[in-house]
Amino acid sequence: MHADVSPELLLRAYAAGIFPMAERGDSDTLHWIDPERRGILPLDGFHLSRSLRRRILRAPFVIRTDTAFAEVMRGCADRPETWINRPIRELCHALHTRGYAHSLEVWEDDALVGGVYGITLGGAFFGESMFSRRTDASKIALAYLVDRLRAGGFELFDTQFVTAHLMRLGAIEISRSDYRRRLRAALSVNADFGAQGPIPSPQEVVQRNTQTS
């Protein structure tokens, strides 16, 4: 598929259950992906381990949202092999400026040390990628993100695929048909990524994630 894809087409693709990836970071083409098995992170099933709970409560980082979207994407692509190429960066940035793409960032002083970004549509959050430059930074980002999605009324957190890392945090794998059923239901929901307002305290995030895990 040629990389000339509009933001509107990309949103229609997500609504249909497919998403784009590139073979390499230096590629100019995209491919539509529609896996038979899909990864999701149930919002009532996030697993907060005791070590991660202690790490969050020590509050070593500052959490922000949507203040460094492009930098989060660059952090996610900063690895030997990446599927995030220039067309994907440009498309996601266009969706960010229109309010459909968001980042949750982990800061240490003035340094961005972790984060996650994704696309929102209705009550679905399509998690794209995350990165970490400090121990547990990406796990902490996910804990705050799950809390924000619940507060905003989201019903589906799509992780595309599952990894051992995500499974330890509660991610599961479901069939394509089950995913599309859940997606249809989520798209009918009017969720709001910004509904939570100010970043909650570490104690609040730990308490709410402990209650649902």
Question: Could you characterize the architecture of this molecule?
Answer:
The protein has a single domain, classed as Leucyl/phenylalanyl-tRNA-protein transferase, C-terminal domain (Aminopeptidase), CATH 3.40.630. It has a 7-stranded mixed sheet, with helices on both faces. The termini are far apart. It is globular and about 45 Å long. With 213 residues, it is of the alpha+beta class. It contains 8 helices and 9 strands. Helix 5 packs across helix 8 (202-212). The model has no long low-confidence stretch (mean pLDDT 94). It has helices at residues 7-15, 50-57, 69-77, 86-97, 137-151, 164-168, 176-187, 202-212; strands at 19-21, 31-33, 37-40, 62-65, 101-108, 111-121, 124-132, 156-160, 172-175.
Concise account of the structure shown:
The protein has 213 residues and is an alpha+beta fold. The chain contains eight helices and nine strands.
Topology:
Layout: H1 7-15, E1 19-21, E2 31-33, E3 37-40, H2 50-57, E4 62-65, H3 69-77, H4 86-97, E5 101-108, E6 111-121, E7 124-132, H5 137-151, E8 156-160, H6 164-168, E9 172-175, H7 176-187, H8 202-212
Parallel strand pairs: 7-8
Antiparallel strand pairs: 1-2, 3-8, 3-9, 4-5, 5-6, 6-7
Helix pairs in contact: 5-8
Tally of domains: 1
**CATH class membership:** Alpha Beta
Q: What do we call the CATH homologous superfamily?
A: Leucyl/phenylalanyl-tRNA-protein transferase, C-terminal domain
* Major beta sheet summary: 7 strands, mixed
The proportion of strand residues reads 15-25%
Mean pLDDT metric: 94
How many strand units? 9
Strand order of the largest sheet: 4-5-6-7-8-3-9
Helix content range of the residues, please?
25-40%
Return the CATH architecture: 3-Layer(aba) Sandwich
Shape: globular
Counting copies of identical and different chains, the oligomeric state is: single chain
Q: Distance between the terminal alpha carbons, to the nearest Å?
A: 41 Å
Structural class: alpha+beta
